[in-house]
């Protein structure tokens, strides 16, 4: 986990924050509507497949995509469609909750994740710590 945090790139950090923000809506505004979730799954299958085809087959030959990249290609349309359905008619401005409290915990969670990444990068790598201890 420490290695993952240390090597987390800015684009992947942003994607984690997107997921955190989605949970910030999906948890408090959850609806047990079968239609909402099956529609989101259907959109995920249709749009995710289009995204997969447009990336894996963009050039003259097929490009092998990492497993987690493919998962994200399908997860993102699911999150977007379910997010839109969950916030409809609830006073959101773009993706922001209508009150500051609703925005506070997802924003705080993103900041905590960022702080963990920065802290992990400041820690010595295991091999560096071992070399220092061995030379003392």
Overview of this protein structure:
With 136 residues, the protein is mainly alpha-helical. The chain has a domain at 1-88. The chain is 74% helix and 0% strand. It is flat, with a radius of gyration of 20 Å.
Furnish the topology, listing elements before pairings.
Layout: H1 2-7, H2 10-26, H3 34-56, H4 67-87, H5 100-122, H6 126-135
Helix pairs in contact: 2-4, 2-5, 3-4
The termini sit apart by: 28 Å
Strand content: under 5%
Shape: flat
Structural category is mainly alpha
Task: Summarize the entry for a quick read.
Helices cover 74% and strands 0% of the residues.
Key features of this structure:
single chain, 136 residues, mainly alpha, 6 helices, flat
């Amino acid at each position: 986990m420490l290695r993952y945090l240390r090597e987390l790139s800015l684009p992947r950090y942003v994607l984690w924050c997107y997921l955190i923000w989605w949970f910030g809506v999906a948890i408090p505004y959850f609806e047990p509507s079968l239609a909402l979730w099956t529609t989101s799954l259907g959109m995920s299958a249709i749009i995710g497949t289009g995204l997969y085809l447009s990336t894996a087959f963009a050039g003259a030959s097929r490009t092998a995509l990492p497993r987690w990249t493919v998962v994200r290609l399908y997860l993102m349309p699911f999150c977007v469609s379910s997010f839109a359905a969950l916030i409809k008619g609830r006073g959101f401005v773009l993706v922001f909750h209508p009150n500051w409290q609703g925005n506070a915990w997802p924003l705080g969670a993103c900041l905590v994740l960022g702080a963990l990444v920065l802290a992990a990068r400041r820690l010595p790598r295991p091999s560096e710590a071992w070399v220092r201890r061995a030379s003392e």
